[in-house]
Amino acid sequence: MTNGTSENRGKLIGVEISNSVFKAVCLDAKGALLGSHKVLFDSSQVNLPQLLDFIKQLQKQFGSFDRIGIAVPGLVRQDTKRIAFSTYIPEHSEIDLLGEVEAATGLKMVIENDANAAAFGEFQLGAGRTGSNMFYATIGRGVGGAFIFDGKIWRGSSGFAGEFGYIAVNSDGMKLEDVASTTNIVRRTRNRFHQDSTSSLSHLPEDRITLGDIIREANNNDDFAQMMLKRTGVYVGTAIAGVINLLNIEKIVVGGEIMEAGQLVLDAIIARARELAFSPSFDAAQIVKGELGENASAVGVALLANIAD
Fold first, then answer.
1. More confident residue, 243 or 4
2. Rounded to an integer, what distance in angstroms lies between the CA atom of residue 60 and that of residue 67?
């Protein structure tokens, strides 16, 4: 670990909040995974009391710790350490989450955007650890991105850099998130559902198809499922080509649920990026799958909490 993380603070605890799950990791001082814990929370109820209860569970499971990192699906203002906007958990923008947690637990807390946290985790301990500059893209329920320059998260002038899902991918201004998020991959699949009755997906209830179903059938050589995932890769590759052209960045790491499809999607991303990117810049870039999987955000924010002042 670099950037000050060699200081031994004992256990490193990171929590990712998604739309319905609290997910935590416990690392040792060198970044090795000691354990993990995940629970569903009731999205119809106020989030904060459930988060505080989850932290108590972590203290029982992992023992005492003096600080915690929390990764959230929202834009975090660096000056106030408050969430400016969250599509999936809007109540977070109405409260001082950091202040409330610190006051209730006595822990030092760091709060970070989930894509930024995942990027830092991949940079320190995953697929980006061999470079100094990196772009991270996460394709899941939402589509996000983050930049690492000279080993540090680059946040932009207001702290909101990396909104990869808002990149337009066609001349009508359609955003990447409109076609590549989990929800929209499933929507596009359902829209074409009746055009290929030979697909094994046609035997499933149309209103219950999930991304997991599409990936499973693609891995079973279903042509229709493979086509839908490859098209997703084309959209992502279109946006990544823009990043390569603008920044001549050395490494692009792609994570999130879509990468459960593995090489099928990654090959489509790379092929499209090669087609649209400036050749010398493309040749200098590596496009790779993330290595930390579903733990990326929690790992990254645990590391960030450990180096915070």
1. 243
2. 15
What is the C-alpha radius of gyration for the chain, rounded to an integer number of angstroms? 20
Q: Which pLDDT value is given to residue 207?
A: 83
Q: Domains of the chain by range and CATH?
A: 12-121 (3.30.420.40), 127-290 (3.30.420.40)
Angstrom distance (rounded) from CA 158 to CA 36? 33
This prediction has a pTM of: 0.92
Unique residue bearing structure tokens 């692009």:
252
For the record, the structure tokens of 48 come out as 């904060």
Amino acid at the residue 283: D
> Helices 223-247 and 211-219 meet at what angle, rounded to 10?
110
Beginning with the edge strand found earlier in the chain, give each strand of the sheet holding 251-255 in spatial order: 152-154, 143-149, 134-139, 251-255, 286-289
Question: What residue type is 78 in one-letter code?
Answer: Q
* Structural tokens at position 78: 């660096």
Record the tokens describing residue 66, joined without a space: 């003096």
Torsion over CA of 22, 27, 32 and 36, rounded to 10 degrees?
-30
User: What is the CA angle 155-70-47, rounded to 5?
Assistant: 120
Residue 9 is predicted with a pLDDT of 56
